[in-house]
Amino acid sequence: MSACAGCGAAPIVPVFSLGRMPPVNAFVTPAEVACEESFPLDVHFCPACTLLQLYPTVAPLRLFADYTYLSATSRTTVAYLGRLAEALARKVALTTSSKILEIGSNDGTLLAALRAFSPNVLGIDPAENVAARANADGIPTRVAFFSAAAATALRAEVGAFDLVAALNVVAHTPDFVDLLAGVRALLAPGGTFVMECVHVMQTILRGAIDTVYHEHVYCFSLHALVRAYTRVGLVIVDVETTPAQGGSLRVFARVAADKPAIATSVDDLLRVEEEAGVTRLGTYAAVGQLAETLRREVPARLRALRGDARLGCLVVGLGASARGVVLLNHCGLGPDDLDFVVDDTPLKQGKLIPGRHIPVHDWTHIPRDEEVVCLLLSWNYRDEVLAKLRARTSRARVLVPLPVLEEITLER
């Protein structure tokens, strides 16, 4: 009997499974295929605090020590983080003396934007390869997993922070309550913690099962976060919803002992979640059915598009994202279905999709002005990806799997 990682209650209840898959960022060379590992993707629900979580989990060192995602490779992400930096500067009243820490800082894109408001920035990230890029760009970054123990040592060394940020990293941390305790230890008086995470109500409950992968241990509701924050002496003071990653929460918190004012947005969203069924186990029964429908329909629709196209037409996946790897594995699509996948990330190019072994190339592999059939894997970056496709070809038939399965035709 397994206990909830968020609130400690037991038992957690299985709600659906995507079977076994390799980690979504474990891109392989042909020589490495024989050694590829896979792990179960089994999703459970906690009736006590509503937390949706994977069980069992994969050791973080196996997933993050060498990482292939880079924030700076997406224009959409760079622009988003630039806007976020400006919004945070206003909301928490950053000054040139403010001290800023980012947990899971990746290549330092957000910290580079925040440095326009304060030079006192520090990143911490477990991936040595991406941290090296940040340091080379002048963003001081330490290679480590963040924890309460690491936070205690950091505070003794450099003091407290006025702003601590964690974007799409709390959900990637198996012992995320320990991470929150570390944040609590590092916040200066009046300091603010901001995190972003995929919102279960906007993604999983709408059938976006590609949100589920080994790195993404949790899919949070605000209900679950309130319970976890309370355990470590933090209080959520404001919350916003954003379209990022298919639908996310941006949560602001402060130390509970400071008795900060709480915005009406918190109770408002808790009420919306309750009405949507986020707190009820029965609501999640339909997710497994949506996953099975997607598994059947995406390959059938893609093969129909290929059959309608001219003989010899290339079939291309757009975006070797984490979501895309999940979708390809879940739907059983391989080299017989797609000729290759294009992606902007140099660390993925020249390798094979985990589990499906489809080659990954850069965009120049799409011939100019020739008809192609495409599967939009990075559907959450739809506008950016389709703009790149238009720049390469005069005609494309595109299957968009989520949030609603649809076919579109692009022409110049």
What does this structure look like?
This protein has 412 residues and is of the alpha/beta class. α5 packs parallel to α6 (176-186). The protein is 31% helix and 23% strand. The N and C termini lie far apart (58 Å).
Please outline the helices and strands.
Elements: E1 13-21, E2 39-45, E3 52-54, H1 60-64, H2 75-91, E4 100-103, H3 109-114, E5 121-125, H4 128-136, E6 141-143, H5 148-158, E7 161-167, H6 176-186, E8 187-198, E9 218-219, H7 222-231, E10 234-242, E11 248-255, H8 264-276, H9 285-308, E12 314-318, H10 322-331, E13 340-342, E14 360-361, E15 372-376, H11 382-392, E16 395-400, E17 406-411
Parallel strand pairs: 4-5, 4-7, 5-6, 7-8, 12-13, 12-15, 13-14, 15-16
Antiparallel strand pairs: 1-2, 2-3, 3-9, 8-11, 10-11, 16-17
Helix pairs in contact: 5-6
- H and E string: EEEHHEHEHEHEHEEHEEHHEHEEEHEE
| Strand portion | 15-25%
**Structural class by helix and strand composition:** alpha/beta
Number of strands: 17
What would you report as the Rg, rounded to the nearest angstrom? Answer: 21 Å
Please state how the strands of the largest beta sheet are arranged side by side.
Answer: 6-5-4-7-8-11-10
Count, helices: 11
- Whole-number mean pLDDT: 94
Low-confidence stretches: none
Shape: globular
What is the helix content?
A: 25-40%
